[in-house]
Every structure is written in structure tokens, then in C-alpha cells.
UniProtKB/TrEMBL annotation:
Family (UniProt): Belongs to the GPN-loop GTPase family.
Organism: Streptomyces althioticus subsp. attaecolombicae
Keyword tags: GTP-binding, Hydrolase, Nucleotide-binding
Lineage: Bacteria, Bacillati, Actinomycetota, Actinomycetes, Kitasatosporales
Name used for this protein in its record: ATP/GTP-binding protein
SUPFAM superfamilies the UniProt entry points to: P-loop containing nucleoside triphosphate hydrolases (SSF52540)
């Protein structure tokens, strides 16, 4: 940079920053997803699972899980020179849901991660974003060894509106997660355009 301008003579680009939430049930892969794409070292607030939490933290299906998010995960990814996403992973357990209202403040949209082994665990997240009219995309996290169900079957099980995108993803894979995040931005823009059109007509 020379005197605030790039060496090619172009003015520096001030990127637009957007906030995206990553929600879903306990152990669905939210921390993994944020870590897979973040270009900075992700902020994590994980603590070891304890015997005291055993009655309220259902680990069936994720028996190997030894930690849990108690506040949030935070990461950042630059999709384009002029577009940066800040990712906020929400805690999955019901006792931490009081934090969701603060985390969702100013969010453009959300990813609801779903695990077909524990599909009911993402019902609360779907309901939360529907009630608050926050655009969201459902990402079905395809774990190794998990049964693959047709998208239509998953959509019916979640009772999703027709305009809510549902995609298969791998929370460990950077490119797969990037596609989901691009889908959130596009879906949110489409919803905003519809609202504007409805107001002007």
C-alpha cells in the first residue's frame, strides 16, 4: 500500500462484514464447521463434559464427544475481497439458549446444522429462526457411517417451508462449508429482495 492506495493504483477496498450464526443441537458439528473455514484461529469456549452434566447432556449417537461449547465459537472467513463473514457458533444445550438472542442481534442469516441420527435436536434452532424471520439454511452434516436419507425425506421430517434451502455438507471440509455459507448469503439476499418487493407493490 502507498499513501492509502494499492500499488496498482486502485483504492483499497473496504469490505462489507456480515454476521452468520451457526446453530443446531448438541454435538452436531458447529465448532468443527467454524474451525474448518476460519482464516483466523477460532475463538472457542469449550469445557470438558462432567458427571454433573450427564443427566442433561444427551451423548447418545456422539458417545466420543468429551467437550461442549458453553458460550460461543467465533471465526472469520473472507469470501471475496469486498465480503467478510463473521461466524458465531451458538451453544447447543437448552440451558445455554438464553444467549441466542444476543448472538442473533444483527445477524444476516444462519446455518442450522442437522445430524440425521439425532434430527430432533435441531428442531429448536429451526423454530427459533422461523419465529424471528431470520433467513437460514439447513446443512445436513454427513458423518462417516451415517445413513444418507433423501433430501425430501429430511425436509418433511423437519417440516421446512419450500423456500428454505437444504444442503448436504461435511462440517470438516472447508470447500463444502464455504458452499453452505455462500448459500446463506444468497438466501438472505433473496428474502430481503422479496420483502422490498412486497413493500413497494
Amino acid at each position: 500500500m502507498i499513501f492509502g492506495r494499492s500499488e496498482r493504483g486502485k483504492p483499497p477496498v473496504e469490505p462489507v462484514t456480515l454476521k452468520i450464526l451457526v446453530a443446531g443441537g448438541f454435538g452436531v458439528g458447529k465448532t468443527t464447521l467454524v474451525g474448518a473455514v476460519s482464516e483466523i484461529r477460532p475463538l472457542r469456549t469449550e469445557e470438558l463434559l462432567t458427571e454433573a452434566g450427564r443427566p442433561v447432556d444427551d451423548t447418545s449417537g456422539v458417545e466420543a464427544k468429551s467437550t461442549t461449547t458453553v458460550a460461543m465459537d467465533f471465526g472469520r472467513i473472507t469470501l471475496r475481497e469486498d465480503l467478510v463473514l463473521y461466524l458465531f457458533g451458538t451453544p447447543g444445550q437448552e440451558r445455554f439458549w438464553f444467549m441466542w438472542d444476543e448472538l442473533s442481534e444483527g445477524a444476516l442469516g444462519a446455518v442450522v446444522l442437522a445430524d440425521t441420527r439425532r434430527l430432533e435436536d435441531c428442531f429448536a434452532a429451526v423454530d427459533y429462526f422461523e419465529r424471528r424471520a431470520i433467513p437460514f439454511v439447513v446443512g445436513v452434516n454427513c458423518f462417516e457411517g451415517s445413513v444418507r436419507y433423501p433430501e425430501d425425506a429430511v425436509r418433511r421430517a423437519l417440516d421446512l417451508d419450500d423456500d428454505v434451502p437444504l444442503v448436504l455438507t461435511d462440517a470438516r471440509d472447508r470447500e463444502s462449508v464455504k458452499e453452505v455459507l455462500v448459500g446463506v448469503v444468497q438466501h438472505a439476499m433473496t428474502q430481503a429482495a422479496r420483502r422490498c418487493s412486497a413493500v413497494t407493490t
